[in-house]
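How a chain folds remains the central question behind the approach discussed here. No coordinates are needed to read the tokens, only the vocabulary itself. For completeness, the protein is quoted in full, as a sequence line and a line of structure tokens:
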Amino acid sequence: MGSGRTQRGCSDNSVTQVSATFGAARAFDRHYSREIMGERRRRTTRSARWSTSAATICTISAVAFAGFLAPQPSALAAETDPTTSVVVRVDRQDEVVSITVDKIKRNERITVNWGDGRKSKGRTKCKAKQANRGLAKCSRTFTHIYDEPGTYRVVTRAKKRRINERIIEVLAIPRPWSRTSDWVQPDGWQLMTGQATFLPCSNVKWFWDSEGQPPNRSKMRQTTREALQFVSDATGLTFTETTDPDAADIDFNWKYDETKYPGAAGYAGVGRESGYVTLNPKSPWTSDEWAGWGLMTRGYVSPAGHFGQRSRDGNGDLVLHEIGHVLGLGHVDDERQTMNAGASVTGRIGFGPGDLDGLWTMYKSQPCPRPEAR
């Protein structure tokens, strides 16, 4: 019995409970050595029982005296995994891309072809006593790190026998959209930093910092929620309000610095997959008087005491404009667009066509990163 072939008169059965079965076989011999061999009925019974036990003893003998052998063909087929698929991000391969080989004979040489031109070689590790106790005791684990994203077919062999095959798909680190060297800026919108701020299909968390917010600007938070709904429709992003400022991707605050943009009703900034919107607590446009959407007309009294009227879009357009900056949009000269730097008097509710084109390019037209790559 060796190299996966069965000796004449021996069974293919897997070796289990070696010590217990072997002890039972020895007890069987002692019992029948005391029997009267001339008694036909006893001989017939013994012959039948011996034929049942012989295969077990033969198999056990092979393990006990011939060393730990390779599994039989039937056992090998059962232990060979079907082709499986593993998906991992290229920067998260530690303790993920590994092959564990077990149920292989003691000290057998194993080769793992990782599919990228590299191989790992080694021998199964176990002591002779462990090998005699069970096939699963002899094992070896191989690990590997891929340098590049791609799809790799990994084949494991014991000598020349293929014992395992799997597909490992290594995903690239997802990046926000960015312009390429040959990209041409379309009309109607402009980039602010050369790329999008967030990954497409992301869940963006935002935090409302009410420190420094005047009482007559209490409606601004609700206006911000409505503005984010417009953004979600245009980009495919989802926005979740959080009470944890450290967990927020966008911070809305009232910490206005007059030296940065004097007289502005608000300004925004972006970082690496994050941003902020700062509102001016002294600007008339951030007050509840201008809360909402669409063209509004409000009366006012000049410093000289003259009464007048002023028309402009509600401060929802202001919030939408600053969020546009956080998403990666820059200023444009076209007054029909939300990203025009001047006061809006269009009566438009939501983004303009150029704004929408830019948001579609950076977000909605991009494929969603696979869950394994997030």
The first strand starts at residue 81 and ends at 89. The chain has three domains: 1-66, 74-171, 203-373. DSSP finds seven helices and 14 strands in the chain. The radius of gyration is 37 Å.
